[in-house]
Structure formats: C-alpha cells, structure tokens
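Exam prep: given the inputs below (a chain plus adenosine-5'-diphosphate), describe the expected output before reading on.
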Amino acid sequence: MRRKINRQLITIAILATVVTMALITVVFRQLLQQQIIEDLKAYAGLLDKADLYQNTEIYVTDFKAENVRITWIDADGEVLGDTDANQDIMENHAKRPEILEALATGEGVDIRKSETLEDNTYYYARRMEDGTVLRVAKAGQSTWKIIFSALPGIFIALLLMIGLCVLLARIFAKSIIRPLKELASNLDRPEAKITSEYKELEPFMQTIRTQHENILRAAKVRQDFTANVSHELKTPLTAISGYSELMEAGMVQGEEVKHYAKEIRHNSNRLLALINDIIHLSEMDRTEYAVPMQQVNLAELVQNNLESLKMSAEQRNVSLRYVGESAVVYGNAGLLEELLWNLCDNAIRYNKENGMVKVQVEKTKEHVNLLVSDTGIGIPMEHQNRIFERFYRVDKSRSKETGGTGLGLAIVKHIVAQHDAELNLESTPGEGTKITVSFPVYQG
Ligand code: ADP
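Solution:
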C-alpha cells in the first residue's frame, strides 16, 4: 500500500512538474515574441513621430548599427528606402503578409523563419498618413532556440523537483500509513483510540475492531468449551473407573455389587448423553452446514411427541397438558422436535412433586408461539441471563442427578437462532418457569 501511494504521489508530482514546465515554455515563448513586436512598434512609432521615415538618408546610416532594418514602401509595394539593401534592386513588397495587413488594417505583423531556420525575423508594418507603409524588422534568435538553450537549466530544475517529490512522497506515504499501522497493532487493545486524523475510517475501523473482538470472544468460548467438555467427561469416567476397580479388587460384596453396577450404568448413561449433546452442538457450530427447511405443522409435531413426553412426565409424578391450534412454521422437524424435548425435559426435571407442565401452540398476527410452562422450582433472576450458556447450571447436583448435561438450553438457543425465532424466559423462583419460542409466521 505504501509503495502504491508512493508511486502515485511521484507520478502526480512528475506529471504536474512536466505540464507546468510545458505551459511556462509556451507562455514564455508567447511573451518573448510579443516583446519583440512591441519593441518594433515603439521603433516605428518613434520614426513616425519624428517624420524620419521619409528621410531615408538619416536612417540608412544611423539605424544600421541597431540591428534594425527599416523599409519604406509606397502603396503599390514599391520600395522607397531600405536600411539594408539598395531599393532599386529590391523586388516589389506588395505581397508580403505584414504589408498586406498594414495596407488593409493600418498595422501588420509577421514572423518569418530565415533560411537557417535557427533565427526568426520579426516584421512590423504600419500605414502612414500619406498612404506609404513603414516596416521595421529585426532578426532575433528563434524563441525555440532560446528555450532550447535554457533546456539544461530546465532539466536540472526538473530533476531537482522530481527528487524533492520523491522525498515528499515518501514522507507523505509514511504519514498516511502510520495511523493505519498503529491501528493494526492496537486492534486487540480496545482502549486505544482511533486516530482523529482519519475520521472517515472510523466506521470501518470500528467494524474491524468489533469483528476482531468477536473472533477473540468466539475463540475464548471455544477454549472454555473444550476445557469444560474435558472436565465434564472426566467426572463420570473417573467414577466408572473407581467403581470397577473396587469390584475388580473383590472389595464389593453381595447387595453392594448391585449398587455399584447401578452407579456405573448411571455414569455411563451420563457420559453417553454428554457425548451426544457435544456432537450435536459441534455439528450445529459448523456454519457451512445448511439445515434443510420446510413447512412444519408445530401443533402436529407436539401431538406426535405427546405420548412419550407424557410417559417421561409420569415417571416423575408430573402431569403434562397440551393446548394448541394448528400452526405452520418454516423449519426443520428434527431440530424442532429436539427443541420441544429439551424444553419439556427441563420443565419435568426441574418440577415439584405432583407438578404440572403445559405445552401450548398459539398463533398471533406476526408469530407462531411455542410455550412450555411449568409449576417447578423456578430460576432466580441472577441466573436467568446465563442458563443458555454451555454447561451453565443453577444447581449442578440437581442437574446431574436428573441426568442433565448442562447443554440442553445451549442447543435450544442454537435451534431458535437457526429458525430466526426469538426466545423469552419468565420465571419466578418457587412458582415456575415459562419459556416462549416465537417463530415468524410462515409466508408461503
Ligand atoms: P441441564 O442439562 O443442566 O438441565 P440445560 O441447559 O437444559 O442444562 O439448563 C441449564 C440450567 O437451567 C439447568 O441446569 C437448570 O438449573 C436451569 N433450568 C432450565 N430449565 C429450567 C426450568 N424449567 N426450571 C428451572 N430451572 C431450569
């Protein structure tokens, strides 16, 4: 980037210098020619005022040295007097452009190249009162020759300017890049302010910074998750290993064997549940995986699962009720079933003896809502924000006792996001919990 800025600045500078030089040369040439013509005009004016032009004797001798040629011509182009040549042998001047112009308009100018092409002759002609024409001419270096003679100087100036431009371009490029470099190295330091030199870049930088923070946060979440997973897997495995070791050593006798075998089975189930949930979550984390979506009748989906949910509720002395109306959402039936299961499973597991769970499907103008409410233990306010985090539990031992993995609501949150739905939690400790999932109405 610095190189590019550098190169562009140098190109602009060189172009500007060359164009300026060219313009100056053209203007300079114009001025030079104008100046010579003005001089000739002044000469002619002087001669006219002093009526000298008719006195050919005087100017033939006096003006010769001035490098100025004076020619006096009558209206027919006949040369009456000339400081340079004998008028008798001079050809008729009537066709010369400056004379023609002077006869027509009163004044005429012409610049002609000499044979050598190196020099120019400047002519100025003026019509006198008596109808004759006075012409003053001067040979001068061609303006191009003058300019060419100045070329080495111009060239040196050009080189110096280019050198200066290169130097300035470097400094400018550096100063343009510096704040960007600073920012790049400060990306992970949120307290480092965005430089005020680049106000326009602020939204862009903010986006980069936010993205950077998100990446860091995601990395941290992944790290935490890995650490948590290892820890969660280790606990049941340690238990299984411990119990079986005791049994192997023959230290468990009679009725105790049953108890130990039950513990081993319990921990193995826990391990299986954990692994299932982990695999499931990491599958959903894979962003490239597009979930196949279609129309799903949510009411039918609940009814299809009602029997087995009821059985699971009965095992814990909880009753399960369903109230609903037919409502279609756009989603994935497998994932929606899992969402329903996780919510109902929690409502049953965190319930009270003889408690109740109500599943509801309701349609509003903009949403199809799935509500799962229970008369359970409720969730204290300070935990309500966090229970959707992976492995976050309010009461760890109750969760484990009832076969929880701490991942159910994290999976729910994921599924809700995949369906562009919204989650809402209302809970009062000791009274119960109501979780609402609001799906957008299906616009077939
Ligand atoms: P778990 O497998 O531990 O149930 P979840 O992710 O499903 O994990 O839930 C996280 C935590 O939220 C649970 O450990 C529990 O403390 C709390 N929780 C979830 N649902 C309810 C509910 N219906 N009533 C009370 N607490 C709940």
